[in-house]
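Justification of computing resources. Each target in the renewal requires a structure prediction run like the one illustrated here; the chain below, 174 residues long, is used simply to show the kind of job we budget for.
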Amino acid sequence: FDMDENKAFEFSLWGNNLMDRIERYPGVTLSAINGGALGGGLELALSTDIRISTKNAKIGLPEVTLGIFPGWGGIKRITRILGNGIGKYLLITGKYITGEEGYNLGLINFLDEDPENYAMTIAQNLKNHSSEAIETIKLLLLQDIYSEQLEAAYFGKIVTSPIAKEYLQKFKKK
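Resulting structure tokens:
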């Protein structure tokens, strides 16, 4: 790691911006963890909406054991997903956990021995869902403070859209 303070600053900003763009992507993002997700790899997975892993995958943010800390938004994301207690513990110890332990903690959404195939199955199932509704759900979940007013405003916009009317019409026919 041969960089000065300014380059390190720029590198961290670059990584944070990239992970933020993935997190804010309007469609559904999935990560398949097969083998391991350590450091930046886990920071990338934390930026996705759905994480699928094998039971024995090695997962962690070991940066503290290298004298540094996660610099691409992993701190805010792991504590948002797991809560401050468990997230902080994993951050300050640099402890590796298995995919199964991650699933039990709520870090991993699904366990499967073929996470790539599982992710593709989810993607196929989602392709007929309203992209407008998914985008709005994601936008609302990224708010620092959840607002019923904002939810109601988006709901009014979405429920009266031609796409929603088409979906609701299909639902009525079932």
